[in-house]
Amino acid sequence: MTLTAKSVARAALVSTLVAAAAGAAVLAASPASGAASTLAAAAQQSGRYFGTAVAANKLGDSTYVGILNREFDMVTAENEMKMDATEPNQGQFSYGNADRIVNHARNQGKRVRGHALAWHSQQPGWMQNMSGTALRNAMLNHVTQVASYYRGKIYAWDVVNEAFADGSSGGRRDSNLQRTGNDWIEAAFRAARAADPGAKLCYNDYNTDNWSHAKTQGVYRMVQDFKSRGVPIDCVGFQAHFNSGNPVPSNYHTTLQNFAALGVDVQITELDIEGSGSTQAQQYQGVTQACLAVARCTGITVWGIRDSDSWRASGTPLLFDNNGNKKAAYTSVLNALNGATGTTTPTTTTTTSSSTPNPGGCTATYSEGEKWNDRFNGQVTVSGTDNWIVTVTVSSPQRIIATWNTSATWETANVMTARPNGSGNTFGFTISHGGNWNWPAISCRVA
Ligand code: XIL
C-alpha cells in the first residue's frame, strides 16, 4: 500500500490518536471524544459485534440488565441452551429459560450465539448413560430439534463444543459421543445445517489459542479436512479463558489468521482473563487487537458482565467490577476497538515522501517480523535513495530495545531516527510492546 501525502497526514493523525488512546487506557474512564462510547458501538465501526454470556436468572437485576442493554449487541446463553437444559428428559424439550434470554436479546435488537448443541459435558443424566447407535441417534435428534426450534433466530451455533483432548496428542477427547465413531462431529454439523440453513455453524474449544500447541493443530486439521470434503462448517470459536498459568499467547494473532485462511470466520467466544489493573487491561487490549487484525474475526464475546457474575469470580476476570463499574480492562478494550479503522491489516505498509533534493523521493516499507510474549520485530526497507533518514515512532508503552543494520539515535523515548550504517537499505528493530501490538509509524526523507 502506498500512501499519498494527504493520506500520510491522516495516517499520522490516526496513529497519534491510537497512541494517545493506548497511553490513556489504564487511566481514563471515558473514551477520547468523538470515539464510540460503548463496546457494541465501538465494535460496529469495523463491522464486528461485542457480546456477553447472559444468565436467565439475572434478567431481573437492574444493574446487570442496564449494562447488558447498553454495552453489548450479541448474547450467548451461559447455560440455558445446553443439552441438559433443553432436553432434560429424552424427547421432552424445555426452552423456558433459553427463550427468556433469546427474547430479551431480540427485543433489544441484539443477536444471539447458540451454545451448544453437542458436548461431552452438561449432558442430561439419561444421555450420560447411553452409548452406540442409540446415543448417536439421540444426539442427532437433539441437534435437529433444538436448531429447528430456534431456526432463523441464531447468528451462529456452537454445534460441537470441546471435542479435542488437552496435552500433546492433538487427537479427539475420549467421551461417550466420541465412542459412537469419529464421524460424530461432521454428522452433528450436517444435522445442524439441515435444521437451520441460515445459522453459521461453529466448532468451539479452549486451549486452542497457541498456534504451536498440539490441540490447536488438531482442530486446525479437522477444519481443513471438513472444508476440503464439504462438511458444512462456517466458523471456529476460541473460548479464550486466560489466567497466569494459561496466558494470552504471543502468537494469538497468527492462530486466528491461520484458521481464517482456511475459509472460516473466527470468533472469540468466551473471553475472560484473570487478573487486575493494567496487567489485565493490557492482555484484554492484546486479544482485542488480535481480533481486529484479522478480517474474518467477526466478533468478541466476554463470558459474563461483572466479576461477580463470572464462573471464575475469584479471578476477577471480566470488564466490570462487582458494582458494575467499568474496569481498566473495559477502557483498554473500548480504546482498542475505537482504534480500529478497517477490517484488515495489510502485511506491509508504505509511506512516501517527495522531499527534495532527490526528485525520486524516498520510500520506506514496514513489514512485521517475529513476535513473542513481550516483544516483536519489525523491518524497514528503503528505496529511492541510499541517503535516507527514517523516523520510527512507537506508541506507549512500547519501547525500541534493539536495532540492527542501522545507525540509530533517539529524539524522545518513542521516536527513533535511523540512518544507513553501510549495511544496505534494510534495517530492523525489536519493540518491547507492553501489550500494545500497534505497528510503529514510519516516515522517510532524503538526507
Ligand atoms: C460454564 C458456565 O459459565 C458455568 O455457569 C457452568 O457451571 C459450567 O459451564 N466452556 C464452555 C462454557 O463452553 O459453556 C462453560 O460455561 C465454560 C467453559
Question: What does the secondary structure layout of this molecule look like, with pairings?
Answer:
Elements: E1 2-3, H1 5-24, H2 39-44, E2 49-54, H3 62-71, E3 74-77, H4 83-86, H5 96-107, E4 111-119, H6 125-128, H7 132-149, E5 156-161, H8 184-195, E6 200-205, H9 214-229, E7 235-238, E8 241-242, H10 252-260, E9 265-273, H11 277-292, E10 297-302, H12 328-339, E11 348-353, E12 362-371, E13 375-383, E14 388-393, E15 399-404, E16 407-412, E17 415-419, E18 426-432, E19 441-446
Parallel strand pairs: 1-11, 2-3, 2-10, 3-4, 4-5, 5-6, 6-7, 7-9, 8-9, 9-10
Antiparallel strand pairs: 11-12, 12-13, 13-18, 14-17, 14-19, 15-18, 16-17
Helix pairs in contact: 1-12, 7-8, 10-11, 11-12
Bound molecules: (3S,4R)-3-hydroxy-2-oxopiperidin-4-yl beta-D-xylopyranoside.
Q: Can you characterise this structure?
A:
The two termini are 24 Å apart. Mean pLDDT is 88; it is low at 1-32 and 341-359. By secondary structure, this protein is of the alpha/beta class. The chain folds into two domains: 39-340, Glycosidases (TIM Barrel, Alpha-Beta Barrel); 363-446, Immunoglobulin-like (Sandwich). α11 packs parallel to α12. The chain is built from twelve helices and 19 strands. The protein binds (3S,4R)-3-hydroxy-2-oxopiperidin-4-yl beta-D-xylopyranoside. Residues 78-79, 161, 239, 270, 311 line the site of (3S,4R)-3-hydroxy-2-oxopiperidin-4-yl beta-D-xylopyranoside.
